[in-house]
Amino acid sequence: MSTPGLDALGTALHATPAPGLEELPDEQLADLALLVTTAEETQRLELHASLDEALGVVPRPVRAAVRRAVGL
What we know:
The structure is a single chain. This protein is mainly α and 72 residues long. The chain has one domain (4-70). Helices cover 71% and strands 0% of the residues. The chain has three helices and no strands. It has helices at residues 4-13, 26-55, 60-70. Helix 1 (4-13) packs parallel to helix 2. The radius of gyration is 19 Å and the shape is rod-shaped. The termini are far apart. The relative contact order is 0.12.
């Protein structure tokens, strides 16, 4: 049986939630989904910031080429 909280968690995880999580109350599932989404966004922002910082040591004339090479 699917609930809004379980659906939200599945969306946040980009996968089917592990068996047993359906036992949690819907409010806790929604909170867990929010935590996963927030952690993923924080990780993405920190990764982007660290890549920008790392590119700071690359000479300006070649930064665009390096950005393209690493997929930024």
